[in-house]
Design brief:
The complex is a heterodimer of chains A (234) and B (294). By secondary structure, chain A is of the alpha/beta class. Chain A has a single domain (33-53, 77-232), classed as Rossmann fold (3-Layer(aba) Sandwich), CATH 3.40.50. Helices cover 32% and strands 28% of the residues of chain A. A six-stranded mixed sheet of chain A has the order 6-7-8-3-9-10, sandwiched between helices. The relative contact order of chain A is 0.19. Chain B is mainly alpha-helical. Chain B has a domain at 30-228. In chain B, helix 1 packs antiparallel against helix 10 and helix 2 packs across helix 3. The N and C termini of chain B lie far apart (50 Å). The chains are: A alpha/beta (234), B mainly alpha (294).
Chain lengths: 234, 294
C-alpha cells in the first residue's frame, strides 16, 4: 500500500452563511482510486472544492504530501500537484479545443504529452480548431480530463465525470481512469453512478450531511451492498 | 475636383480628422474593453487617466526637460502604476458587488482627479509642441497630410492590433479570456488571477495615458480633455459590445470616420451621430455589434 498522499481531517466548509461540510475525515494513498459516494447535496462536490480552496470559508486540515494546504490560495494548491476537473466541465467558450487543452500550466514533470492525450481521446485531435463549447458532452468531458493530464499533477480530483454521458462514452472514461491508475496517478472520484465507481475504486467513502459516515474497501463492497444501498437510497 | 459636390480637400480633410478622432476612440475604448472584460468594472476614471497621461507629458517637458519620446514611455508607466494602486486599494473591494458600485467609485475618482488639476492649472489648456521629427507634412495632391497626424493614426493602429494579437493569439491572452469567463477555475489551474487582474487594470490605464500623450500635441493639455471625450468613448464601447476587443477597435475607427463624414455632409448632426448609432444598436442588438450577451 502506498504512502498517504492526501489526508483530510475535520474539514468544515461554508458557502456564505451555509455550513456545508461538518468535519470530513478521510485519506487517499498514492496510486489509489478512491470514491466519495452519497446522495445529492451530501457535500461531495464541496469536498473537492474545499481541497482546491474554492469555497468561501474552510477550517480543519488538508494535508497533501504532509504539507498543510488549508491556508493556501487555490492557484498555490494547484501548484503543489493537484488538478481539478469540475462537474460542469468548465470548458471555455472563448477558447478553441487546443487552447483549452493547453490552458492549465504544467506544475510538475511527468504529465502526459499531447500525443498521449490524443491517443486516449482521438476525437480531440480531429477538432483542435473547434470552439470548446461546440463539442458534444462526451468530447467536452474528454477535453476537461485531457487538459489536467498535461499538468504533471499526481492527484486528480474528478467530479462526476460520467454525468449525462452516453453509455459508450462512460465506458471510455472508465477505461481511461483504469489506465491512469496503472500509470501511477492517484484519483479522488466523486460519482453518482455507483455501478461505474464500483469497478474502479480501491475504497469508497460514503458521505452524508457533510461528513464521512462509512468507509467500504472495494473488496468488501459486495458483502456490504445492502448498507451502501440504504445510504445512497438506491 | 469634387466628390458628391464636396471639394476633395474638404472631404479628405474631414476624413483625416475622423481617423484621428477614431484613433483616440479606439485606443480609449480598447482600454475600457480590456478592463471591463476581466474586472467587470466600468472604468469612468478612464478619461481622467487619459488626461493624466497628457499632463504627465507636459510636466516631464516643463519640469525635467524630457520630450515627447520619453513621455511616450514614462507617462504610461507612471499612470499605469497609479492605476495599479487604485485597483489594489479600492476597486478590489468591489468585485463581488453590482457594476454600479464600480461605476460610482471610478466616476467619483475622475471628478477628484479633474478637480485637483483644474485647481492647479485652471481650465484653459496648456500647449504641447509637436516633436521636431514629426513636424511638417506632405502634400498628397488631393490633400495635405500633417506628419504628426499620420503618425498618430499609424501608431494607434499598431497598438490596437498589437493588443488584439496579445489577447486573441497568445498564451497570456488565453489566460485572460478564460479568466473573463470563469476566474475561479482558472485560478484553480494554478494561475494567479488576482495578480492578472491588477496588471490588466494597469495595462488598460497605461493605454489611456499613452493616448493622452499622443493627444497632447493635437488638442491642448487641459484638465477637461478626458471628460469631453469619455462620453463619446463609452458610446463607442456600447456600440462595439462591452468587453469586445475587436469591437472596440473597429467601432472606434469606424465611428470616428462616420463623425468626420457627417461633418462634411450634414454638419448639424456631427455631434450627435454617434449617439444616434448607439440608440439604434441598443434597440437592434443590445449586446453591441461584436458583443455577446453575458
Amino acid at each position: 500500500m502506498g504512502e498517504i498522499l492526501l489526508a483530510i481531517k475535520n474539514l468544515n466548509a461554508w458557502y456564505g452563511e451555509s455550513h456545508i461540510l461538518h468535519g470530513m475525515d478521510f485519506e487517499v494513498r498514492e496510486g489509489e482510486v478512491v470514491t466519495l459516494l452519497g446522495r445529492n447535496g451530501a457535500g461531495k462536490t464541496t469536498t473537492l472544492k474545499s481541497i482546491m480552496g474554492m469555497v468561501g470559508k474552510r477550517q480543519g486540515s488538508v494535508l497533501f504530501r504532509n504539507r498543510e494546504l488549508i491556508h493556501l490560495a487555490s492557484n498555490r494548491i494547484a501548484r503543489q500537484g493537484i488538478a481539478f476537473c469540475p462537474e460542469e466541465r468548465g470548458i471555455f467558450a472563448s477558447l478553441d479545443v487546443e487552447e483549452n487543452l493547453l490552458l492549465p500550466p504544467q506544475v510538475a514533470a511527468g504529465g502526459l504529452g499531447l500525443e498521449q492525450i490524443y491517443e486516449l481521446f482521438p476525437n480531440l485531435k480531429e477538432r483542435l480548431r473547434s470552439q470548446g463549447t461546440k463539442l458534444s458532452g462526451g468530447e467536452q468531458q474528454m477535453l476537461a480530463i485531457g487538459r489536467i493530464l498535461r499538468t504533471g499533477a499526481q492527484l486528480l480530483l474528478l467530479d462526476e465525470p460520467t454525468e449525462g454521458l452516453a453509455p459508450v462514452i462512460v465506458q471510455q472514461i472508465g477505461r481511461t481512469i483504469e489506465r491512469l491508475k496503472k500509470e501511477g496517478f492517484t484519483i479522488l472520484l466523486v460519482e453518482q453512478n455507483f455501478r461505474f465507481a464500483q469497478k474502479l475504486a480501491d475504497r469508497h467513502y460514503i458521505v452524508e450531511h457533510g461528513r464521512v459516515v462509512e468507509m467500504v474497501p472495494g473488496a468488501a463492497l459486495e458483502a456490504n451492498m445492502h448498507r451502501v444501498h440504504e445510504y445512497l437510497g438506491v | 475636383m469634387e466628390i458628391f459636390g464636396v471639394p476633395t480637400q474638404a472631404l479628405f480633410g474631414q476624413l483625416l480628422i475622423g481617423l484621428i478622432n477614431g484613433s483616440f476612440y479606439a485606443l480609449l475604448s480598447l482600454g475600457l474593453a480590456v478592463i471591463f472584460g476581466l474586472l467587470n468594472i466600468i472604468n469612468f476614471t478612464h478619461g481622467a487617466q487619459y488626461m493624466l497621461g497628457a499632463f504627465c507629458a507636459y510636466l516631464l517637458l516643463e519640469k525635467l526637460g524630457l520630450g515627447y519620446w520619453w513621455a511616450l514611455v514614462i507617462a504610461p508607466v507612471l499612470v499605469g502604476a497609479l492605476g495599479i494602486i487604485i485597483e489594489r486599494t479600492m476597486l478590489k473591494q468591489l468585485y463581488k458587488l453590482d457594476h454600479l458600485y464600480g461605476l460610482l467609485l471610478t466616476f467619483g475618482l475622475a471628478l477628484v482627479i479633474q478637480g485637483v488639476f483644474r485647481n492647479q492649472y485652471g481650465s484653459s489648456g496648456q500647449p504641447y509642441a509637436i516633436p521636431p521629427a514629426l513636424a511638417g507634412g506632405h502634400n498628397l495632391g488631393f490633400m495635405f497630410l500633417p506628419t504628426y497626424r499620420a503618425w498618430v493614426i499609424v501608431a494607434s493602429v499598431v497598438i490596437c492590433f498589437g493588443t488584439w494579437f496579445l489577447i486573441e493569439r497568445t498564451k497570456l491572452g488565453s489566460y485572460l479570456r478564460a479568466a473573463t469567463e470563469n476566474p475561479e477555475l482558472v485560478q484553480a489551474f494554478g494561475i494567479n488571477v488576482p495578480r492578472m487582474i491588477t496588471l490588466t487594470y494597469g495595462f488598460g490605464v497605461a493605454l489611456a495615458a499613452l493616448a493622452g500623450v499622443m493627444a497632447g500635441p493635437i488638442y491642448q493639455v487641459s484638465p477637461q480633455m478626458g471628460a469631453d471625450l469619455i462620453i463619446v468613448v463609452f458610446a463607442v464601447v456600447v456600440i462595439g459590445g462591452m468587453g469586445s476587443i475587436m469591437g472596440s477597435i473597429l467601432t472606434g475607427f469606424g465611428l470616428g470616420v462616420l463623425e468626420g463624414l457627417t461633418k462634411v455632409f450634414y454638419p448639424e448632426a456631427s455631434n450627435t451621430v454617434i449617439f444616434i448609432v448607439m440608440a439604434l444598436v441598443l434597440l437592434v442588438k443590445p449586446a453591441g455589434l461584436f458583443g455577446t450577451q453575458k
